[in-house]
């Protein structure tokens, strides 16, 4: 089951953080079709956010066709995203790189900026 972490200082709306974290779990294969998302009550208890915020995020995920709400049962994954399993060898390489960057004194924003620049360069041709 996914555990949401809310960063109140990120400037990103709380419901968007839930949507993004759910999509990340779907991309990594941590959530699969048929899996149940935490109930709104469970998310509220774990994160101290408004229940309507959780429901807004779940409605957004449902609108995108990723989950479905089943009355009286909960919210369930309908489909997955991407093909980047959590146990990919590339993940280990990326973790090693991140460890070296931290050891070199880089912070999260430094790493994100470099990674984004490399991604942008790698996918240049797809924007045509």
TrEMBL record:
Entry-linked InterPro entries: Tscrpt_reg_HTH_GntR, WH-like_DNA-bd_sf, WH_DNA-bd_sf
Gene Ontology molecular function: any one: DNA binding
HTH gntR-type domain boundaries: 12-80
SMART domains in UniProt: HTH_GNTR
The keyword Nuclease is annotated on this UniProt entry: no
Annotated keywords: DNA-binding, Transcription, Transcription regulation
PANTHER family linked to this entry: GNTR-FAMILY TRANSCRIPTIONAL REGULATOR, HTH-TYPE TRANSCRIPTIONAL REPRESSOR YTRA
Protein known as: GntR family transcriptional regulator
